[in-house]
Amino acid sequence: MSTFQVELKKVVDDSYEIEVGYELQEKLIEDIKNGLVGKIRKFAVVTDSIVKPLYAERIYRMLLLAGYQAELIDFLAGEESKTRQVKEYVEDTMLAKGFRRDCCIIAVGGGVVTDLAGFVAGTFGRGVPFINYATTLLAAADASVGGKTAVDTPLATNLIGLFNQPEKVYIDIATWKTLPKRQLSSGLAETIKHACLANYEFFEYLSKNIEKVFENDDAVCRKIAHENCRIKYQVVMKDERESGLREVLNLGHTVGRAIETVSGYRLLHGEAVAIGLVAAARMSEKFGYCTAEEAERVTALLDRACLPTQIPEYINREELVKKLYTDKKVKNGQLRFVLQKGIGSIVQIGENDFARPVSEEEAREVILAMK
Ligand SMILES: NC(=O)c1ccc[n+]([C@@H]2O[C@H](COP(=O)([O-])OP(=O)(O)OC[C@H]3O[C@@H](n4cnc5c(N)ncnc54)[C@H](O)[C@@H]3O)[C@@H](O)[C@H]2O)c1
Q: How far apart are CA 28 and CA 73, in angstroms?
């Protein structure tokens, strides 16, 4: 018998730029011309049925005009499309159109598009580069930054995927103007989450200005776009693979992700997170990490952002409690919640541990109280 040692130590530089601004399509083409993805000349522009005519077609045409090969691939808009089947559809379409390893994927859309296209890019030909062009506040606030890509399964959201960092992220604030109000609110949930977990001043700023987002106020939208990115990348830079600190970004997501699935996607991701944030604030209050007044301030801000703060009547409470166990923070069958310390900080449980064990009874109590 003989043993071979395969030496594969790697130093990987996955650094990338996030560009925040208005109408960044031309900048994207200029960056590609200047070597953003090396010598690649073939692009798959992946988008959904709503974003296609609004923004993706223009990027596709600009690529052709600049002399690149490009194909536009779209799927039906909505969370229901974030599946293995739609991933397969995108892959098969790319293969049929002659795409091999020498290509780049440009994801143009919200979090569904960036999550799915980033996952395709991670496995197509064992990995091709991808670029995110975020067109929702939610994608700008969270989904397009940080390198988590995934699809949903019938059991729960985001269960199949990989860590895959984009070559660059474009956050085009001009695209928020066509977003329905409900979608803007959905993005504000992740924004409020960031303030709750990392920055009291930002929470105060949101408390003063949140309604201005609905008026497309330039200064407020820019501030929100920058602050979201800053908070998220500061965490991701320290713990890309969620071995500890990155769990803090899960504030509100234990109940949030579970209720999103149990609602059959009647609730948008951000709406589900908003309910989850209220649950987390109440749980934090219950364990003495924040005051009743602080928990109430979180609820009131979510309310002003036109987000739900109660569990809807149609949600089966017991099904919701059971669904909590599909959360990735569950350890040895034990539920674990990320909790906030006051406003602007997270409870640290131990070294590199940011999720507190919570019994099923404690979780049920908080859920039943949210009528
Ligand atoms: N990868 C991560 O770290 C991460 C973080 C948070 C959320 N997510 C995921 O993000 C997804 C939610 O993202 P989302 O809210 O952007 O969803 P989405 O991509 O479904 O977009 C919401 C809706 O808005 C439409 N839309 C997009 N841009 C538009 C525009 N500019 N004008 C008009 N309509 C527009 C879309 O067609 C869609 O109907 C969820 O799947 C969630 O799991 C991922």
A: 18
Output the CA–CA distances (angstroms, integers) from residue 51 to 54, 77, 107, 170, 215, in the order listed. Answer: 5, 8, 11, 15, 21
Q: The whole model's pTM is what?
A: 0.95
168-172 and 17-21 beta bridge pairing: parallel
Angle between helices 84-96 and 111-123 (to 10 degrees): 60
267 C-alpha vs ligand 1 centroid, how far in Å? 13
Taking the centre of ligand 1 as the mean of its atom positions, its distance from the CA of residue 136, in whole angstroms, is 6
The atom number, within ligand 1, closest to the CA of 145 reads 3
pLDDT confidence tier of residue 323, bands split at 50, 70 and 90: very high
Q: What is the pLDDT of residues 109-156, one digit of tens each?
A: 999 999 999 999 999 999 999 999 999 999 999 999 999 999 999 998
Domain count, the chain: 2
Q: Which of 178, 211, 244 is the last residue of a domain?
A: 178
User: Per DSSP, what are the bridge partners of residue 168?
Assistant: 17, 131
